[in-house]
Amino acid sequence: MELNGTVSVDGQSGRAFTSGSGSASGGGAGGSLLVVASRLSGSGTLSADGGAGADGYSTLDSNGGSGGRIAIHAYQPSRSDFTGTVRARAGPAYGSMSPQAAAGTVYWCDGRVSESEAALEGEANAHRCGVRRLELDNGDLPETPYYPQLSIAGGRRRFVIDELHLETATNLSVQAPPDFDSVAAPGDRTSLSVSRMSGPGLSGSPLVAKNGTDWALGPDPALPVDEPFLLDLHSVGVEPLGKLKLAPVTVTRRGMSLTVRGELTGVESLTLDRGTKAHLTSSGRLRGRECHRRHYGVEGLGLRC
Length: 305
What we know:
Blueprint: E1 6-8, E2 32-37, E3 45-47, E4 69-74, E5 85-87, E6 105-112, H1 115-119, E7 129-136, E8 158-166, E9 190-198, E10 206-209, E11 213-217, E12 229-231, E13 235-238, E14 243-246, E15 249-252, E16 257-260, E17 263-265, E18 269-271, E19 277-280, E20 295-298, E21 301-304
Parallel strand pairs: 1-3, 2-4, 3-5, 4-6, 7-8, 8-9, 9-11, 10-13, 11-14, 12-15, 13-16, 14-17, 15-18, 16-19, 18-21
Antiparallel strand pairs: 6-7, 20-21
């Protein structure tokens, strides 16, 4: 498919008040757009933006709508060939009194792997994606107190993202299965693996591995890696029944916070950059002090800063 025009499922803009002391109506949320093609090229636009807020009486201005959802499934790798715009931003709030709405998401299932390769990942690659890339971008809109939420389809337990790109900060967490029980069903958990992370929004994004969820960050340890994995988030927290697996060689962002009350695995060398605060309990049993060139040994785990 060659796209040189515009395909839009944008939300409607809000309506201003017309008389008296009424408030303006808010902008509509962006819609959902699914593109399935053997190949995507061109320089057009795919848009699922939220509608703009509107002018209300006095301080009764309205908020814009949140961004929508765009998913692109291209059987041949296409993200580098498509030179246009794929966007799911929120609509701007009117004035300064209304809080800014959250961005939507753009998902690329770029290229296809064989059925045998996809079968190795089971439900995590039901669509045989070559590269699974998730993007979040609210452009130059002000910071928002709201965050997008991706609901987990019934029965799904395992998710893999090859590339997570955040132009805009967000809260990172997933839901535990509704029937998770640490005693009766301790293995019934939700797992999410993220191989690569990029974008300026990472440094403002906290991640929480909630009870009943497993997170794995960093490339597959079976693959050769030339450099350490940079944990470039604002903060990382692991709840008592949560699990976090890091790349064997991991370096934290300067000044970030790491709090582990649950289980931390995978890492063989963890370097804490200057200003990092580490608080490890449970199996770690390290109660944090601000890191100033100290070396910690925690049950075989070397923590260097």
